Amino acid sequence: MLKDMIGKYYFEQNYNCAETILRAGNEYYGLGLHDRDMILVAAYGAGIQCGNTCGAVLAAAGILSMKYVEAKAHESADIKAVGTNLIRKFNMRYGSTLCKDIKAQSFKPEYRCLKTVETACDILEEVLDEYEKSRS
Fold first, then answer.
1. Residues of the chain scoring pLDDT < 50
2. In the chain, how many H helices and how many E strands?
3. What is the residue range of 111's domain?
């Protein structure tokens, strides 16, 4: 499971929520990203550093992009469906995709946003599983 891989990034290497999701996803799904590529999502942590869209949501969307977009999003038959489902599931779980709203429900000082990162992993895997099954 994807969430089994987050401890080494979130706690051992002290990455933020977005960095953790992307690094674990890169390893788990074999996305072929390099260390330098993953810096792209560093600013997404803490809701783009200002409580806006949750970095875990944004990084999960990035993983969907890496899996389903070859060159351009508007040329992908898959990205809209999986992206929409990802956001729908976050809204169902938290009532929002905003960090400030999610943090109010799941942040614990001793674990920071671990629960949100775990939930993002679960939601991402669920979205991917449902979509792949629908294509079979």
1. none
2. 8, 0
3. 2-135
